[in-house]
């Protein structure tokens, strides 16, 4: 398995690898760098700047200095920046997709799909930029008027994960720009390159110096905690794991920072006895195997009505067996590697734990013996409630099948988790669909479909899955502050 020779020389040498502070590409203090690996080979792709806390501080100070001028741009001017960014995404699509695949491992067709989604999010928030409304009304109690306006919340810290490096970053950057907020974005150390390339694209689209700054670091806590506690920022928007989110919320409490948190999930996927099995299996394939299962919306617990279980298992294994696992740049590959060794160890431990608690291993279950961090499609059946997999997300290509018989019982088991990001329901009964969708304790529900995230929809979690929403009008509201002006006549 090799990466074709034409790919690296063309894209990687030209890709930005430094910090972007106040409109200038800058080396980290003392020229420090860290390595970015190709998960498909385990080899080093390149090195990028490893910011110090002082570098991070300079980035945030640049965002603070740029805030009032950026907020003073008209909404139409900020919209035009986003429209130019949209055109540049189309122009640079192949380069960006290649970078995504090289650093994250996902197959090239998935990276291209991520770029389609990025374009949709930019388009959406370009439209939102000019639709921020206030109100003007009589004050019912006194001789006066009530004016309500929305203002940019202020300099924002954006921290993003490695699983969808670009589409997760754009969910924050596009609304921040639309709302008139300056920012410091910090991508995950596994996948810094796509975000740096995107920040360059934003600068080329006309984002003024200081309005978007990018900091890459191998020491996230050391660099970001002082920024969060500094009092210079007014917003923290984070996507990542729940334990890190909880830690950041504690840090943000000191300055009472406005926080948006897109955290982990433990999605139930419920297939009722009256489901269309073709639809359910198709949906599960996309839901579970996209990005090798490293998706916060991925089904963690697949509850299948006992009468369908044998047939469902047969169809799922039949669909998984011919998947082609390999380097994301190679033709015909349908499943890439996991992002790093840590993920491989995590997935292996979850599978071993489930088997240890009595689950039956139907297929897969052991990492592939080849360079890179490959874990095969895996199916477990009759996973018991005592397995770790029932409580924490596996974040890998593992289908955990659990039988059920009664609707009330499966809803209760689906809700028996600290998380509440997304749930999936498969049934041909409209009444049951509505009843169960309303009873499930999650921010999003997929009814007879396995994907739920769209730029025009408010996406977010309940319980330990998060705070706030990304997408829709709610997504820009996260970057706006409401101001009330009491006017005396
Ligand atoms: P992670 O929490 O380890 O890291 C997320 C980001 O936070 C990265 O940029 C990381 O470098 C940074 N980070 C880590 N520790 C930090 C600290 N102490 N201070 C500041 N920054 C820190 O998560 P991950 O492993 O990159 O991503 C996987 C997790 O993200 C999964 O739990 C997944 O469910 C979740 N996720 C959620 C959503 C959503 O929309 N709810 C979307 C994608 C991923």
Automatic annotation (TrEMBL):
InterPro entries, alphabetized: Ald_DH/histidinol_DH, Ald_DH_C, Ald_DH_CS_GLU, Ald_DH_N, Aldehyde_DH_dom, Aldehyde_DH_Superfamily
Keywords from the UniProt entry: Oxidoreductase
Native organism: Sinomonas puerhi
A molecular function GO annotation: succinate-semialdehyde dehydrogenase (NAD+) activity
Gene3D superfamilies reported for this sequence: Aldehyde Dehydrogenase, Chain A, domain 1, Aldehyde Dehydrogenase, Chain A, domain 2
EC numbers for this chain: 1.2.1.-
Pfam families linked to this entry: Aldedh
EC category: oxidoreductase
Entry coiled-coil feature ranges: none
Record CDD domains: ALDH_F5_SSADH_GabD (cd07103)
SUPFAM superfamilies linked: ALDH-like
Family according to the record: Belongs to the aldehyde dehydrogenase family.
Domain Aldehyde dehydrogenase: 25-485
Active site: 262
Protein name according to UniProt: NAD-dependent succinate-semialdehyde dehydrogenase
Record GO biological process: gamma-aminobutyric acid catabolic process
Domain of life of the native organism: Bacteria
